[in-house]
Fold this sequence. Notes:
Chains A, B, C, D, E, F: One of its GO terms (biological process) is rRNA catabolic process. The structure is a homohexamer. The first copy, chain A, is built from five helices and nine strands; from the N terminus they run ββββααβαββαββα. Chain A has about 240 residues and is of the alpha+beta class. Chain A has a single domain, classed as GHMP Kinase, N-terminal domain (Ribosomal Protein S5, domain 2). In chain A, strands 1-2-3-5-4 form a five-stranded mixed beta sheet. A four-stranded antiparallel beta sheet of chain A has the order 7-6-8-9, with helices on both faces. In chain A, β1 and β2 form a beta hairpin. β9 of chain A pairs antiparallel with β9 of chain C.
Amino acid sequence: MRPSGRAPNQLRSVILEPAFSKYAEGSCLARFGDTHVLCTASVDEKVPSFLRNTGKGWVTAEYGMLPRSTHTRTDREAAKGKQSGRTQEIQRLIGRSLRAVTQLTAMGEIQIKVDCDVIQADGGTRTAAITGSYVALYMAFQKLVSLGTLSAIPLISQVAAVSCGLYKGTPVLDLDYAEDSTCQADSNFVLTADGGIVEIQGTAEDTPFRQSEFLTLLDLAQQGVAELAALQRKVLGL
Amino acid sequence: MRPSGRAPNQLRSVILEPAFSKYAEGSCLARFGDTHVLCTASVDEKVPSFLRNTGKGWVTAEYGMLPRSTHTRTDREAAKGKQSGRTQEIQRLIGRSLRAVTQLTAMGEIQIKVDCDVIQADGGTRTAAITGSYVALYMAFQKLVSLGTLSAIPLISQVAAVSCGLYKGTPVLDLDYAEDSTCQADSNFVLTADGGIVEIQGTAEDTPFRQSEFLTLLDLAQQGVAELAALQRKVLGL
Amino acid sequence: MRPSGRAPNQLRSVILEPAFSKYAEGSCLARFGDTHVLCTASVDEKVPSFLRNTGKGWVTAEYGMLPRSTHTRTDREAAKGKQSGRTQEIQRLIGRSLRAVTQLTAMGEIQIKVDCDVIQADGGTRTAAITGSYVALYMAFQKLVSLGTLSAIPLISQVAAVSCGLYKGTPVLDLDYAEDSTCQADSNFVLTADGGIVEIQGTAEDTPFRQSEFLTLLDLAQQGVAELAALQRKVLGL
Amino acid sequence: MRPSGRAPNQLRSVILEPAFSKYAEGSCLARFGDTHVLCTASVDEKVPSFLRNTGKGWVTAEYGMLPRSTHTRTDREAAKGKQSGRTQEIQRLIGRSLRAVTQLTAMGEIQIKVDCDVIQADGGTRTAAITGSYVALYMAFQKLVSLGTLSAIPLISQVAAVSCGLYKGTPVLDLDYAEDSTCQADSNFVLTADGGIVEIQGTAEDTPFRQSEFLTLLDLAQQGVAELAALQRKVLGL
Amino acid sequence: MRPSGRAPNQLRSVILEPAFSKYAEGSCLARFGDTHVLCTASVDEKVPSFLRNTGKGWVTAEYGMLPRSTHTRTDREAAKGKQSGRTQEIQRLIGRSLRAVTQLTAMGEIQIKVDCDVIQADGGTRTAAITGSYVALYMAFQKLVSLGTLSAIPLISQVAAVSCGLYKGTPVLDLDYAEDSTCQADSNFVLTADGGIVEIQGTAEDTPFRQSEFLTLLDLAQQGVAELAALQRKVLGL
Amino acid sequence: MRPSGRAPNQLRSVILEPAFSKYAEGSCLARFGDTHVLCTASVDEKVPSFLRNTGKGWVTAEYGMLPRSTHTRTDREAAKGKQSGRTQEIQRLIGRSLRAVTQLTAMGEIQIKVDCDVIQADGGTRTAAITGSYVALYMAFQKLVSLGTLSAIPLISQVAAVSCGLYKGTPVLDLDYAEDSTCQADSNFVLTADGGIVEIQGTAEDTPFRQSEFLTLLDLAQQGVAELAALQRKVLGL
Lengths: 238, 238, 238, 238, 238, 238
């Protein structure tokens, strides 16, 4: 049995609150149970230098945790003077995931910077961040369309993410911290609403897992992402 | 007339939401109109090295802004690899303000780390941070008393803060961003509930101000802090 | 057809040269075609602080590229003053992969630091690094056994890695740079000799890939790792 | 009685030595008793990027202490790789104070960089720095007028600074280290020669002070600044 | 007797392997006994900003050691976030030595970046680096001539380097680590093939040495450099 | 003719002002013409970790330039966040030079930190720094003897330094900036009062120089150091 009493294929209570921020062009507070991630999408008129004069746009992401978003306080990265390897790994993942569903050539030379800040962490912050970021990104594009900067929203798929893992031998969906910290192996799945694979990060620090186990996790993730994608569409009014 | 339509001596709508965080020993979300600062107080069993074996405790503070808490996106300090001078100035101010009302010798060798993170900024983030931090700090001490670690709450005064400034020639209380960005001179006042002065930071980057003007601002601040202190007591049930 | 003329399921010419370094306790120069990675394993008597007095050991990894290992010169990370996100992501992957096959509780409080330095890069440096690191790590443990520090080699599986991807629509094994820079989607597979999954990193920056495509890549990887594992055993004399 | 034997409203022996530096466009060695601060003003033809093409100039300041300017050696900030929060707070204060009396729109796109380096410290380094910097800045503007770059000196007021505090219950002017390290509360006052307030930094880390005490300190500061301003005029030949 | 059994005026076995790197415009693996340094010369179309629009070129160098090139592992500079003083001192020496024999005005606005990476260290890495870098630099210039970018190789002398020292009272040539770590005084000599002095770095950390001893070392160095220069010419086919 | 009108073998006017600093255990302001370097020696009760429990002491040095010590302003290293390669090279040289004449085993586990800060620079700052540092170091040892911490001054030789170079073909002693910036080749000589060689740094960035020229420079340096050493003894009362 899961510590939370959830069924193996049951998501936590998920709330996506769009337009949470007063200033950002797009924003979403993504709550997966006690994991709360604020995602904002900011339009920047400058693209990275490698894209200048190419007519292409860019989407990038940054990730951070408030020092006391965690059970015990984590040192502030700004005070330490550098972002941890974990932070960089996560923000690169978020950026790649969003770019995989964006038609960069249809954006013009505009950059969207997505910030994912963890207000409270109870496992699965990177997958909540991706799920909420899609909503924020969509809204920022809507804004650009409404301003006439873009003629259409340059998103070619809908993306969401969830983690799955083996908890006491059972494959379960959407790990919370109590599960995450004790499970044998876990994977993060970034999938499109129609079942395409954007990113898979499977990690078995403790014991390697079998191919069949991995495929069960992938199936669970497909179910979970379908639910999340439906929720994204609902809050976006699609 | 003020952009917000407020009277010169009128605070913004202030909401102090205690116990906002699931994990922190003390916490408070301080909302001054559209300025929202999350303050958490974390107990650390280690004091800074200069206090080891002295029997004294310490209170310190860190401050940060989410990148899109501001009207246009601000670069993330963790990504830049250092905290700005402004950030350091503010977090040092918060720390000094809290220590001024704490009896460090009555804490034992314990450190409280207060984190003030600006979720949304509309002027006056440092004064909102101090006002909310007092609530978070008080709650953390309550927790230590309830655990038997401390026998009494080692706070000798109650502290809150507010900014005042000359807006189009008129002294006004609790500047919001529209006022702050255009006013001639402004001051941050950190005061105790009974009118003691903890910190004053008066700054006239544009034109020096007269002594009489400064004293009017100080009077306004005393009124404002009295209101804020009453609100702190209310949410703390005192 | 692949630029190199290889069959879809054909590895590059792979040479693992053990004991390449005069000083390191274990070392291996891993050559996958024109990709050359020097892997050294150094024994350190100190474990990270979180393991002190636990009786457990640790394996960690660092990764770097010589500035002109690449087609055009890459800035030196030591001169820039920080490791890139890519570097940190890779070295964390190598460390996790090695720890997944190591019985940390059987090592005593010893740390093995594995350094993977890319002398020349032609795609697949991280998978070559993992494959060579296993050899270096094994040798370092052999040395500790021969010195009597350990009674047995604390490795519970044999690990190797390879990348696969869709090149012009065809699933191919062991991507070189010409393929990697143009393929639609690629994945890095870290697998054990008996088919267990240690890490999977599937990335589709361009277009999401289908689940069936992904499974084909996983099959190719299983074949490739079987070959690599046989080569590891051969050079280790097992 | 004060440790130095001075009367409560008595400044230390103050010597302003203009043109101390062979190369700087303006310079002044400010000695307040045993506190010696070298202030240089350097003309830079480039303004910060936010002022480019605005026709406005800028004045900025940097502050540092020689490692053995203090009673015991302080670590060198250049070796530690960052400036402390205190350093940044002080240099921001100096810069704001000078800008408050400078007509930036009358400077053209020129920047003056003021460096304040503490050769020896015995309390009150920031106020000595401001007092000496005004002299250095004035001289640099004189030089620009003599070169025909400017038609008039773009200074609208004369600024100087002094600290005051409560020492054993008595309000005293111009604290030295022996007083500063034991006083209950102290304030730094940056004032114009005609009594305008440019900056006030009042700090009561130990015990909050009463409003009446604060006003007494402000009066003392007005007297002290009047003396310092007279000395500035004398060494500048005004 | 020397630990290696060499005669006092005998170099180690020296092998210069040109064109070691697949990508670099010029490269050389320099082996002085067990000291192995990979030198690559990369052509960069951009000169440093102080040379822009001067028509002059530049040659610069960077130096690094692989973490386990040494007897015990050295921390990775990229991970520490800065290059040591020793590293900077050495790379500045290499750059100056190469520029001393290059006619910068005949290069056009091109920069050659030389990277010297120590694969294995057994003393004398900086002198091996200079000796190998000359070969790499020559080859890069040959390439530019063959491409028609330059009309002639802009090198005015041939440079090589060797260290000498007093080992147990005897002056010896080309110190290896066993000698270097115990010798009283040692010097690095960077000389031209025709006996010109480019750089001398004599260091007596233990006991000052006599002028006559120093001159004997200089004579030994002249002999050693003559041999090294002949080898350079041989591998370059001159 | 030299720009200053000095004879080829003539030092600038040299003034060594001991006890310049109020706090440092030893100090000396070294003036070589317009080059002014403040040298302080601070006693630290802690040795570097590699010397702990060895009974040996250590002498180390740090070097810095005030931003406007130079003809045009140089960026502040503390603000840039790192010391330049030149700074590190110089401070390492000063430290080695002082250690070469100190009997570290006779110091006990004490460290002397020498700070050399350039107040004004007109060429030859590193040699002025070494010459002044010897005086500061001697005084710090005197202080330790007077306190009974040491029984005798643990200095085995007297060290001073001077630069020489070829200026318009003529070998000259003690280069000033006007000469240094145009000379073909220059060398820094750190010598003992009795003619021993501690450090030689000969550099010919422009054209290699002949062995005979180098020997002439060495002779000039011996004369110059003899004069400087006599001056050191005079100000130390020896």
